Task: inverse folding
């Protein structure tokens, strides 16, 4: 794959930013927002804290942080996505890559990033960049698809179940934790989201029941989430 084709794949979401929200499954999005803010960050005071939404997409995680009173910086690859963020919440909007963040060292108390690193050519570099821009004691909350379920991607593509044509560098749960520690994080907690792939109204009740075991079953779930402290 040449550099130009890699770049085109990384910018896939930017190419249809206005349609993005209508294509996504909001049950899935809302569940991940819940895990981030109502579970992993439930007991933390975000009010007035500097929080970076790295790879913000159309802004649902920026919105969740703003509702908790954080000073949010929303970063993504292009202006089209950032325009969608502006419709959801007040934040500082910055064009930039999660692999080369345009920020000084130790600038944020929190970094959140959901379903982003797998769409880059070097997903684990995003962990070291997140570590770099976090203040000492700062927290990263990050989600990515579990490579255990990578076969579902072939099925989804075969039946045209998702409108994505970009990079797909999924991670094993164990490696994600190891790479986070390798980047310098001293505390890494892993949980999961969804026990059944192909999220559909028929599977919502089952996923909801098993969500209570997302800590124990996290390494086997469709999406893996880490909370890592610098």
Result:
């Amino acid at each position: 794959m040449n550099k130009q084709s890699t770049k085109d794949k990384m910018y896939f979401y930017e190419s249809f930013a206005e349609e993005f929200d209508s294509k996504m499954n909001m049950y899935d999005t809302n569940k991940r927002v819940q895990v981030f803010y109502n579970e992993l960050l439930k007991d933390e005071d975000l009010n007035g804290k500097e929080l970076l939404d790295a790879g913000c997409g159309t802004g649902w995680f920026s919105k969740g942080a703003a509702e908790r009173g954080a000073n949010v910086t929303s970063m993504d690859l292009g202006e089209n996505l950032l325009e969608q963020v502006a419709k959801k919440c007040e934040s500082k909007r910055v064009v930039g890559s999660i692999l080369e963040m345009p920020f000084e060292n130790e600038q944020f108390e929190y970094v959140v990033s959901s379903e982003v690193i797998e769409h880059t050519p070097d997903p684990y570099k995003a962990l070291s960049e997140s570590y770099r821009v976090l203040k000492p004691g700062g927290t990263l909350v990050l989600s990515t698809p579990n490579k255990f379920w990578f076969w579902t991607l072939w099925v989804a593509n075969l039946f045209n179940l998702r409108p994505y044509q970009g990079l797909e560098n999924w991670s094993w749960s164990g490696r994600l934790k190891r790479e986070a520690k390798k980047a310098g994080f001293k505390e890494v907690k892993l949980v999961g989201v969804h026990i059944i792939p192909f999220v559909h109204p028929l599977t919502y009740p089952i996923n909801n029941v098993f969500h209570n075991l997302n800590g124990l079953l996290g390494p086997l779930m469709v999406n893996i989430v880490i909370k890592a402290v610098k």
Observations:
- Residues 44 and 180 are 21 Å apart (CA to CA).
- Residues 3-229 form a domain with the Rossmann fold fold (CATH 3.40.50.150).
- Residues 26-40 form the longest helix (15 residues).
